[in-house]
Write a structure and sequence with these properties.
The protein has 2 helices and 9 strands, in the order αββββββαβββ. The chain is α+β, with helices and mostly antiparallel strands. It is elongated and about 120 Å long.
Length: 171
């Protein structure tokens, strides 16, 4: 009697599929456990109730007889009407008919002291160069402020609210 031979080719094909499935499941478990350990990136945002307003804007200067402005100063009183401390302010100025305004306090946005809710703070800016870039001349200008907070990583986070107000510049 001759022993029957078993088709070993079919059996090895089935074993390879089972090993492939086990390998795929093992790799997915390893990848999931690794990726679940990485915390999601949290993007800090300025709180919604951060509100800063301008009171008593004053823009005074001295006109140059040869054209332009010799000296121009902008004095603003910031009042914090929100629920959070304000650490920095971006101050911009431009002609009343322009959409894009020039930043007055470039690289000096951080305030010496935070403005606490309900408090106010007076700040003066030399805007001689900015006014001369804008063409000089007395008239109506738009002052724009954008409050910002200091993040835990010591980065400035600007708020979405941008406050604009007209100011009459006289020289």
């Amino acid at each position: 009697m001759i022993p029957k031979e078993i088709n070993k080719k079919g059996l090895s094909l089935m074993v390879s599929y089972v090993l492939l499935v086990i390998l795929a499941i093992g790799l997915s478990i390893v990848a999931y456990s690794y990726l679940s350990q990485i915390p999601p990136s949290e993007r800090e945002e300025c709180p919604a109730n951060t509100n800063l307003i301008i009171e008593d804007p004053e823009c005074l200067g001295t006109e140059n007889p040869l054209g332009g402005v010799l000296e121009a100063n902008l004095s603003l009183t910031f009042v914090n009407r929100g629920f959070f401390n304000v650490s920095a302010v971006f101050v911009r100025i431009g002609k009343s008919y322009t959409e894009i305004r020039t930043q007055v306090n470039k690289d000096d946005e951080l305030l010496p002291e935070q403005i606490l809710p309900g408090n106010s703070s007076i700040h003066k800016y030399n805007i001689t160069g900015t006014i001369n870039e804008l063409g000089g001349g007395s008239g109506t200008y738009i002052v724009e402020i954008q409050p910002a907070i200091l993040s835990k990583k010591k980065a400035l986070i600007p708020c979405e609210a941008v406050i604009t107000q007209e100011v009459e510049c006289i020289w």
